[in-house]
Amino acid sequence: MNTPMRAPNNLTNAPLQAPSDAPLLCVQQALSWAQTLGLPRLDAQMLLLHALGRALNDRAWLLMNSDAPLSVEAHQTFSQFVQRRLTTEPVAYITGQKEFFGLTLQVDKRVLDPRADTETLVEWVLSCLADVPTPHVVDLGTGSGAIALALKHSRPDAHVHALDASTEALQVARTNAARLGLAVQFHAGSWLSPLTKGPMFDAIVSNPPYIASDDAHLASLTHEPLSALASGHDGLDDLRTIVRQAPHHLKPGGWLLLEHGYDQAQAVQDLLGNAGFTQVQSHADLAGILRCSGGRWPTVK
């Protein structure tokens, strides 16, 4: 499950209504209009491309056709998209898709919007498994399937399992797996509890809920499922559960790798160390924030 511990885009001073009669005469005027309301340029570009029925990565087309006129229908559709974004609805929910680790995922309000920060976690898992033949991996709280599918795509030989307590989230993940042609085994249930008779894993990975239940950031994340965001008074309840359960499902030398909040690295390292994990460490995301922590289960002597 993906969720950031950071402030949302600065849209608080923008009007909440996008007037349907805004003077959107051409592509460049449309983008300029959206930016004057407070949208970042990239958001405006993606929403305009979606309104025009073009691929979201086709920003070069916007530059080459900056003087192209908008139809009335495209004008109205773009205005509606802008209004939705100004209420902090994620761009991914408006467009119905999100790029993650080179894959295009279908997403909606049943799952969290996958963040680029989580790619740090995927890269770490892959590095830990680089020398492991046909590894067994499980992704806990898979949501849209982002982590599990990225791992399977990068390591086709891996046996990848994915779990989620939300049956609606599993529907999204299974749809993504089928569309991408990636064979992942999905399970319904809370964390590792459904796998009492399952395989032992070379790596357990999770991006669980980690926001404190009274955190002010939740007010800006109302479009996303609360159950995938908050985790007790300090945000660590689900992380504690995973750390407690993981040793019963890891092979000797297997890794437990976890995403967490921007200020939780030391707390998660302490949980791992107290549970008996070795080589406990944290990795930074692209912004230099310690975003993931993990450790290795001791090998049998």
Description:
By secondary structure, the protein is an alpha/beta fold. The chain folds into two domains: 27-86, no CATH class; 98-296, Vaccinia Virus protein VP39 (Rossmann fold, 3-Layer(aba) Sandwich). Helices cover 33% and strands 18% of the residues. It has ten helices and nine strands. The chain has helices spanning 27-36, 41-51, 59-64, 72-86, 91-95, 119-128, 146-154, 167-180, 237-245, 265-274; strands spanning 97-100, 103-106, 136-140, 159-164, 185-188, 201-206, 250-259, 278-284, 290-296. The strands form two sheets. Strands 5-4-3-6-7-9-8 form a seven-stranded mixed beta sheet, with helices on both faces. The protein has a two-stranded antiparallel sheet with strand order 1-2. Strand 6 (201-206), helix 9 and strand 7 form a beta-alpha-beta unit. Helix 1 packs across helix 2 (41-51), helix 2 crosses helix 4 (72-86) and helix 6 packs across helix 7. The radius of gyration is 21 Å and the shape is elongated. The two termini are 35 Å apart. Residues 1-21 have low confidence and may be disordered.
CATH fold annotation of the largest domain: Rossmann fold
Element order, helices and strands?
HHHHHEEHEHEHEEHEHEE
Query: Regions with pLDDT < 50 over 5+ consecutive residues?
Result: 1-21
Class derived from helix and strand content: alpha/beta
| CA(first)-CA(last) distance | 35 Å
For the record, the count of structural domains works out to: 2
CATH class of the largest domain: Alpha Beta
The pLDDT mean sits at 85
Tell me the radius of gyration: 21 Å
Given the C-alpha coordinates, what overall shape results?
Answer: elongated
Tally of individual helices: 10
Strand content: 15-25%
Count of extended strands: 9
Helix content: 25-40%
Going by CATH, the architecture of the largest domain would be: 3-Layer(aba) Sandwich
Largest sheet properties: 7 strands, mixed
